[in-house]
Amino acid sequence: MRHPVDQGARQRLLEAQRAEANALRKVQAAARNCDAVRSRLAAADVKLLEAQRSLVRTSGAARAALLLGVEEATLRRGLRRTDDTTSRHPTSPSSSGHIDAEADD
After folding, report:
1. Which residue stretches belong to region Disordered (predicted)?
2. Distance, CA of 30 to chain centre
3. Which of 10, 21, 95, 102 is the one with CA 20 to 30 A from 79?
């Protein structure tokens, strides 16, 4: 790789490299934040489904759907879909939406 001969060009290159490194750090921090939010959302979804299941056990599916303002079929389908998913993947790892550079090494 050729290095710039001019001192001004070298300085501009160093500044551009610093800016690039800073931008990369920001992207990585944002990706970590996204992963943390996805994890919290998944935990909240689990709690919501547990609460819905509890309501269905307590009040029955028809009454629970009425109380929740959803169609009974929709409620049953949602609960059944999660039952199917957990029976197939009891401990599925959370997926991250970013590329892990170390995974390619």
Report:
1. 77-105
2. 12
3. 95
What phi, psi does 87 have (nearest 5°)?
Answer: -75, -30
Angle between helix 61-68 and helix 7-59 axes, rounded to 10 deg: 130
pLDDT above 80 (res 38): yes
The angle, 0 to 180 degrees and rounded to 10, between the axes of the packed helices 61-68 and 72-88 is 110
Three-state DSSP state, 6: coil
User: Which tops the pLDDT comparison, 103 or 75?
Assistant: 75
Please list, residue by residue across 70-104, b when 16 or more beta carbons sit within 10 angstroms of its beta carbon and e when fewer do.
Answer: eebeebbeebeebeeeeeeeeeeeeeeeeeeeeee
Q: Determine the Cα–Cα distance for residues 102 and 105; give it in Å rounded to an integer.
A: 5
Judge whether 39 and 28 are in contact, CB under 8 Å.
no
What is the C-alpha separation between 102 and 62, in angstroms, rounded?
Answer: 50
Name the average pLDDT for the chain.
85
What is the distance between the alpha carbons of residues 22 and 32, in angstroms, rounded to a whole number?
A: 15
